[in-house]
């Protein structure tokens, strides 16, 4: 075909300089780099960042989880044999790991719905608030930007045996106290994280609420809907994309729970009742020098989060967004 | 394979970025160290403790003045959640210094496995130097093959500190406290709490970190057994009568509310939240003006003389790291820093006990001039170290988890808990 094309040039038409080879090279470059190669150049730093900080470690963690691996000095002659599913068998046969997944499950069951409900309700209220609007927005956002280490100190003061909460509750205070009580340690952490993260999620909902048309509320009011009915029939459907985002983000950040059990309950106490998978990964991988086992826990955690995220997307109607 | 332009562009960009990432990764790999005879400048890391920096500074000045061609540069151990994590990361990155004067014995087996440490026995006269300086106690710092991957440096033998004013307020004898046996200790503890002078008789950290058992179970187990380690000849020892007695003692304190189960945010002894504390000689300078204190050996079930009482060492040693280019110089500096003169400086400036045989007779003037440290100097001759075994941190975490469950929170049977922990620890030690 190309020979035929070449054999019959259009009369009076001069082939462009460089001939056919130049055409092909230019086409190939355009196909590879697109119409605006500068766009690739501008996005490259972030792409490199994602590859170096997220993608490469993730791939490496998966590789580690299938090998006998520990961190070694450069040049050290270390054998790192492929061990198949041994690390996963060890992890799944370890009651501490199973318990940590159960603990984070309890955490997510409390934290995620509470985050969605509270942030939506508070965002709606803040959206309508006229007085102290800025003060309230800042007030909710301050815990989010304050270092966990500092805020944990306040909660230890509030929830210790002789703390403010127990003094208010008096005889109703749990025994042992909140943070050293097997039943209450994880719910207390879930409550802490909900409170701390709330400002960020309120911000997401506030942004989403700006896109809900005022006409819909007026139409609903014309049809006789009250404030509660409007909230359920206009606000909630109107911010559904934001709800999917809040669900996903709170699940992902919740599954990565580390600082709170590390600091608030003294390393996952009492007696492992607040140990999270990521805290165990830190103990096994960094403290105890078994990053292969830690990687296996991490891979299972990623799979678990992906499954939950998939279900959330289906249930919360993410497709519609 | 059919690919769209968008996919091709994404692939091209990803491939280019991946190549760059791999190239950067390759650049990050450090090189290995030099031989045991190489000489030249070296870098050392010191603890960020103010008194240890003072000691390190004078030691380095003294060395540098005499060795212009082999200069030492020092820095504090970089900040991290623990020194051991920072050192482990430095080993992996290949940028560990030549010497670290704050290497925890519990981390040494792991650093050795990583290929990060140099066997000090491989230096000419290395083994003899260590054993002559530290005496019989040096054996605790050998690995299973009898090699030294750490220089035993200094200990902080722990004892019971008590608040004399609180004892007096509770009607107790503050000069000769009744703390020798478990029964006496418990009776004293009950009196202290019931009299209301302190909410806790003693308050060791009840948290789950692997190292916390060094400051509750370990000292008392060392005393009860006359110097046994928690693992000996590859097997756990603590699930015996002595271990059970120690566990029951602490369980009683928690059960009766004499020791709190909650973490105290601060120094419970200085703040008057506890009438007693388990501390090393560092506490002498810390509590000098804050508390009217006295010191006593850790208790045993029957009560034994102080001169026969063992305790936990809380030692920190020196590691010579394989990334070091000038290992010959590093070994000479190590010997210089642990010489009799420099050990004397360490004692003088930090109040911590050099791991040196016959300490009190080597520095009689110091202990005569500083009687507060004399008990600790004497106690330093009878210390027990964490066992130098494979997976040592995992071993201690397994122990702490079992202890936390059965002793602190009173869940389950103590004997079963210690037996289960021993079985788990035996498997960890056997897994090289």
TrEMBL record, chain A:
One of its GO terms (biological process) is transmembrane transport. Keywords: Cell membrane, Membrane, Transmembrane, Transmembrane helix, Transport. SUPFAM superfamilies: MetI-like (SSF161098). Gene3D superfamilies: MetI-like (1.10.3720.10). One of its GO terms (cellular component) is plasma membrane. Residues 1-30 are annotated as: Disordered. InterPro entries: ABC_transporter_permease, MetI-like, MetI-like_sf. It is found in: Cell membrane. Residues 101-312 form the ABC transmembrane type-1 domain. It is a multi-pass membrane protein. PROSITE patterns: ABC_TM1 (PS50928). The chain crosses the membrane at residues 38-64, 104-126, 138-164, 184-207, 293-311. It comes from the Bacteria. Pfam families: BPD_transp_1. Its main location: membrane. Belongs to the binding-protein-dependent transport system permease family. This is Sugar ABC transporter permease. It comes from Cryobacterium frigoriphilum.
UniProtKB/TrEMBL annotation, chain B:
Keywords: Signal, Transport. GO terms for molecular function: maltose binding. GO terms for biological process: maltodextrin transmembrane transport; maltose transport. The keyword Transport applies. CDD domains: PBP2_TMBP_like. Residues 1-18 form the signal peptide. Pfam families: SBP_bac_1 (PF01547). GO terms for cellular component: ATP-binding cassette (ABC) transporter complex, substrate-binding subunit-containing. It comes from the Bacteria. Belongs to the bacterial solute-binding protein 1 family. PANTHER family: MALTOSE-BINDING PERIPLASMIC PROTEIN (PTHR30061), MALTOSE_MALTODEXTRIN-BINDING PERIPLASMIC PROTEIN (PTHR30061:SF50). This is Sugar ABC transporter substrate-binding protein.
């Amino acid at each position: 075909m190309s020979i035929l094309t070449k054999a019959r040039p259009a009369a009076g038409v001069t082939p462009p300089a460089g001939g056919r080879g130049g055409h092909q090279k230019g086409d190939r470059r355009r196909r590879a780099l697109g119409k605006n190669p500068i766009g690739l150049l501008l996005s490259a730093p972030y792409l490199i960042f994602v590859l170096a900080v997220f993608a490469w470690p993730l791939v490496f963690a998966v590789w580690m989880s299938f090998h006998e691996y520990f961190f070694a000095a450069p040049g050290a002659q270390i054998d790192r044999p492929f061990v198949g599913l041994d690390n996963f068998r060890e992890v799944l046969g370890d009651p501490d790991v199973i318990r940590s997944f159960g603990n984070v499950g309890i955490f997510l069951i409390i934290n995620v719905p509470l985050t969605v409900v509270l942030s939506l309700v508070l965002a709606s209220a803040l959206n309508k608030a006229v007085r102290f609007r800025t003060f309230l927005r800042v007030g909710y956002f301050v815990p989010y930007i304050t270092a966990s280490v500092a805020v944990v100190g306040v909660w230890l003061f509030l929830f210790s045996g002789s703390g403010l909460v127990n003094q208010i509750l008096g005889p109703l205070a749990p025994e042992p106290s909140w943070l050293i009580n097997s039943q209450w340690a994880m719910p207390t952490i879930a409550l802490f994280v909900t409170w701390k993260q709330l400002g960020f999620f309120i911000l997401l909902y506030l942004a989403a609420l700006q896109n809900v048309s005022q006409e819909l509320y007026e139409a609903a009011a014309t049809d006789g809907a009250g404030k509660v009915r409007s909230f359920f029939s206009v606000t909630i459907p109107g911010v559904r994309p934001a709800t999917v985002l809040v669900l996903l983000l709170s699940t992902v950040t919740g599954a990565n729970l580390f600082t709170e059990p590390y600091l608030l309950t003294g390393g996952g106490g009492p007696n492992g009742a607040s140990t999270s998978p990521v805290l165990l990964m830190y103990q096994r991988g960094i403290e105890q020098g078994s990053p292969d086992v830690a990687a296996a826990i991490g891979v299972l955690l990623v799979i678990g989060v992906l499954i939950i995220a998939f279900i959330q997307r289906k249930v919360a109607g993410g497709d519609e967004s | 394979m059919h690919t769209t332009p968008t996919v091709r562009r994404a692939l091209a960009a990803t491939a280019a970025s991946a190549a760059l990432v791999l190239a950067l990764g390759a650049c990050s790999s450090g090189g290995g160290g030099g031989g045991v005879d190489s000489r030249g400048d070296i870098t050392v890391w010191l603890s960020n403790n103010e008194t240890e920096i003072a000691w390190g500074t004078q030691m380095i000045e003294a060395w540098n003045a005499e060795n212009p061609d082999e200069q030492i540069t020092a820095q504090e151990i970089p900040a991290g959640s623990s020194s051991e994590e920072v050192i482990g990361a430095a080993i992996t990155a290949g940028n560990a210094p030549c010497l670290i004067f704050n290497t925890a014995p519990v981390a040494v087996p792991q650093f050795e496995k990583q290929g990060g440490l140099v066997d000090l026995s491989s230096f000419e006269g290395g083994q003899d130097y260590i054993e002559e300086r530290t005496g019989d106690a040096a054996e605790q710092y050998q690995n299973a093959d009898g090699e030294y991957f750490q220089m035993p440096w200094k200990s902080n033998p722990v004892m019971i500190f008590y608040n004399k004013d609180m004892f007096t307020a509770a009607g107790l004898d503050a000069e000769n406290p009744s703390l020798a046996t478990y029964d006496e200790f418990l009776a004293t503890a009950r009196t202290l709490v019931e009299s209301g002078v302190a909410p806790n008789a003693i308050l060791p950290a009840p948290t789950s970190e692997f190292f916390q058992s060094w400051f509750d179970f370990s000292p008392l187990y060392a005393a009860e057994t006359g110097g046994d380690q928690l693992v000996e000849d590859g097997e756990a020892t603590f699930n015996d009568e002595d271990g059970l007695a120690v566990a029951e003692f602490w369980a009683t304190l928690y059960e009766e509310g004499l020791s709190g189960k909650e973490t105290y945010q601060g120094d419970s002894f200085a703040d008057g939240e506890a009438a007693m504390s388990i501390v090393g000689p560092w506490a002498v300078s810390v509590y000098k003006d804050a508390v009217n204190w006295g010191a006593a050996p850790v208790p045993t079930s029957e009560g034994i003389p102080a001169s026969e009482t063992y305790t936990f060492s809380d030692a920190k040693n020196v590691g010579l790291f394989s990334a070091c280019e000038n290992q010959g110089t590093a070994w000479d500096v190590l010997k210089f820093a642990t010489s009799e003169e420099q050990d004397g400086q360490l004692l003088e400036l930090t109040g911590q006990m050099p791991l040196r045989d016959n300490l009190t007779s080597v520095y009689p003037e110091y202990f005569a001039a500083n009687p507060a440290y004399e008990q600790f100097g004497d106690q330093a001759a009878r210390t027990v170290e964490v066992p130098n075994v494979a997976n040592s941190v995992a071993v201690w975490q397994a122990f702490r988890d079992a202890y936390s469950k059965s002793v602190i929170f009173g869940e389950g049977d103590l004997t079963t808990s210690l037996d289960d922990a021993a079985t788990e620890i035996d498997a960890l030690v056997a897994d090289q």
